[in-house]
Amino acid sequence: MSWLVVARKDFEDSIRSRWLQGLTGLFVGLVALIAVVSLRLSTGGETISTNALLGANFMGLLSGTLVPLIALVIAYSAVTGERESGSLKLLLSLPHSRADVVFGKVAGRSAALSTAIIVGFVVPAVILALGPLSLDIVSYIGYTLLVALLMSVFVAIAVGWSAAAPSQRVALGGAIGLYFLFVPFWEIIQFPLQIAISALPEWVPVSGTAISNALFLSNPASAFRGLTNALLQGQLFAGETAGLQVAALSMLLFWLLAAPLVGLLVFQRRDL
Amino acid sequence: MSAIQLSSVTKRFGDIEAVRDLDLTVESGEIYGFLGPNGAGKSTTINMLLDFVRPTEGTITVLGEPVEAAGAELRERIGVLPEGFDVYSRLTGRKHIEFAIDSKEADDDPAEILDRVGLSEAADRPAGGYSKGMRQRLALGMALVGEPELLILDEPSTGLDPGGAREMREIVEAEAARGATVFFSSHVLGQVEAVCDRVGILHEGELVTEDSIEGLREASDSEATLILTVDDATDDDLDAVRRLDGVSGAAVDGSMVTVSCEAGVKTDVISTLGEAGIEIQDIETESTSLEELFLSYTDGEGVVEKEGTGTGEPAVATPEGGQ
Asked: Which first-to-last residue range defines the signal peptide (chain A) (predicted)?
C-alpha cells in the first residue's frame, strides 16, 4: 500500500505547515463567532441549538464559499510545487508510482485539512455547550463530516489539476478559475437558467427538473448544500428528495476519484 | 545479467537533442563512472533510467527489466541519489530516512543509516535548515536504505567538502564490496578515477569513450607532447613529421615546434626533423595527464578540479599541443 505511505508523509508534512495551523485557528474563531452572533440574534431566549447554528446564513457562507477556497489554495501546488522544488524526484526515486503520488497526496492533504475542520467545529461546540449552546450531537457530527467531505472533494479537484498542470503558474491560475467556476459563477447562472428552463419548448426530450437537478448535482458545493439542508431538517436520505440526496453523495464520491484520475492520466505521460 | 543496458537511446526536448544514439552497458557488480561536462546529457540519461523522463527512441533495461513497463517495483531494488532534488523542509532528517524505510518496506535502523552518512547530530532538526552538503548526505542515506542491488548517484559530491567527498567514496566502495553495482555521474575526473572500475565519457549527448581507468591512463601515458626549440622551420618542413605513424599533430610558431605523438616515436620525430635540415637547439617533453585526456575528449569543456583545491571555481583548461 504504497499510496498510504505517501499519504502519511504528506499528512505529517502538511500538519507542520503554519498555513494549516493558522487555518485551524481561523475555523475555531469563525465557528465560535458565528455561534456568538447567532446567539445574540436569536429571539428564542437564552439558548440556541446547534442545528439553528449550522442553519445560519453565515455558516452556509463559511462552508460553501470558504471551504472550497481553502482546499484549492492548500492543494493546487501538491504536485507542481514538488516538481518545481525537486522533492518530487526524491519521492519518485523511492518505489512509488505516479498514481501512488497523486492518490497519496489527495488522501494525506484531505486528512490534514479534515483535521483542521474537525478541530475547528468541535472545539467551539464543546466549550459553548457548557454554556448557552444545546448540542445535537448526531447532526453536528454529521455536518462536520460533510464539511470534511466537501473539503476533500475540492482537495481532490485541486490535486488532480495540479498533477495535470505543466507549471506552478498554470496550476495557480487554474485553481483560481476552478474556484470561480464552482462557487460564484454557478450561483450567478442559477437564476437566468431557471428562467430559461421554465421556457423550454415542449419538444425538448428532457424535463426542466432533470436539467436543473443535473446542474445541482454536478457542482460539489451545491450537492453539499443539498445534503446539509436535508441533514438539518432531519430528512437525510429520507423524504421526497432521498433519491436526489443519494445521487448527490455519489456525485461527491465520483469527484473524489475522477478528478485525481484525470490528472494522473496527463501526469503519467509527462517528463518530470 | 547487466545492471544497466541502454540500446540506441535518443532523447529530444523539442529541437534539442540531449542524448544521441547512446549504447551503454553497466555490468553487475562494477563501479561505473559516468563522466562529462555539465550539459553533456548525464542527468537526462539518469532521469531516463529512473523513468523520470522517457526516451524518444531506444530501449532501456535496468536489472533486467524494461524501465517503463517495470514501474515502481523496480525501484525497490535501486537506491537513487537524484540531481536537483529538494528535501521536505518541515520534516526532520530522521523522518526522511523513516519514510524511505517505509516506502521500501525495509527493516533498516534509521539511526544506523544517519550515522553512516554523518547526520546523527542533525537527525532531529527539520531538513529545511540543512546545508547543501547535509541535504546531499540525507539523500544518500535514503538511497542506502534496503541494501539496493544498484545505486544510481547523480553528481553525488555536489556541495560536499573534500572530507565529505572522501566519505562518499568510502561509502561507494563499501556498497560495491557488499555486491552492489554503482553507477555514478560526475563532471570531476578526480572523484571518478579513485573508485571506478570503468568510466564512460559523455560529450554533447554522445558516448565519446569508454574504458577502464588503467586503459585511459595507458592512453594518456603513451601520448606525449614534444616542444622543440629550432633555428628556423616552416610549416612545410613539418609535412614529413606529420606523415610518421604515431604522430597526431605538429605545429610551428617561430622557433618553436610542437609535436603531439606516441611516446615511442619521439626519436623518429627528432631524426626526421634533422633530415629536413632543421637544427634542434632544445628538447622538452610533456606527457599528457589524465585530466588533459578527459579534456581532449570533451573539447576542453570539462572541469578539472584537483582534490583539496576545491574552491568550486571551474578551472577550465585546454589541452596542450595543437591536436
From this structure: none
How far is it, in rounded angstroms, from Cα B14 to Cα B255?
A: 51
φ, ψ (nearest 5 deg) of residue B211:
-160, 170
Q: Min CA distance, B152 vs chain A (Å)?
A: 10
A16–B72 CB contact, under 8 Å:
no
Does the CB of A176 have a partner CB in chain B at under 8 Å? no
In angstroms, the CA A226 to CA A72 distance is: 21
Report yes or no on B216 lying in a domain.
no
pTM for the whole thing?
0.83
> Residue B239 is part of a domain; what is its CATH number?
3.30.70.100
Query: Which CATH number fits the domain that encloses residue B111?
Result: 3.40.50.300
Closest C-alpha among B255, B258, B256, B223 to residue B242 = B258
Do residue B245 and residue B172 come from a single domain? Answer: no
Residues forming beta bridges with residue A217, ordered by sequence position? none
Interface test with B, best of A93, A269, A270 (most B CBs within 10 A): A93
Domain boundary pick from B204, B233, B250:
B204
Residues B197 and B261 in one domain: no
- Which residue, B12, B127, B146, B6, is CA-closest to B80? B146
Task: Write out the H or E segment, with its range, that includes residue A198.
Answer: helix A186-198
- What is the rounded distance in angstroms from the CA atom of residue A246 to the CA atom of residue A266? 31
Q: Which three cell numbers stand for residue B72?
A: 515502481
Residue B209 is assigned to a structural domain of this protein: no
Look-up of cell digits 505521460: A269
User: Are B119 and B22 members of one domain?
Assistant: yes
Number of structural domains chain A divides into: 1
Q: Is A62 left (phi over 0), alpha (psi -120 to 50) or beta?
A: alpha
Angstrom distance (rounded) from CA A23 to CA A17? 10
Q: What is the pLDDT along chain A (272 residues), one digit of tens a residue?
A: 689 999 999 999 999 999 899 999 999 999 888 888 887 777 666 677 888 888 887 888 888 888 999 999 989 999 999 999 999 999 999 999 999 999 999 999 999 999 999 999 998 888 888 877 788 888 899 999 999 999 999 999 999 999 999 999 999 999 999 999 998 888 788 778 778 877 777 777 777 778 778 888 889 998 998 899 888 888 888 888 888 899 999 999 999 999 999 999 999 998 88
Which of B19, B52, B104, B153 would best serve as a mutation to test chain A binding (most A beta carbons within 10 A)? B52
On whether ipTM exceeds 0.85, the answer is yes
Distance CA B102, CA B279 (A): 76
Enclosing domain of residue A24: 2-268
Q: Please state the domain count of chain B.
A: 2
Terminal-to-terminal C-alpha distance of chain A: 23
Q: CB-CB: which of B72, B85, B100 is closest to A86?
A: B85
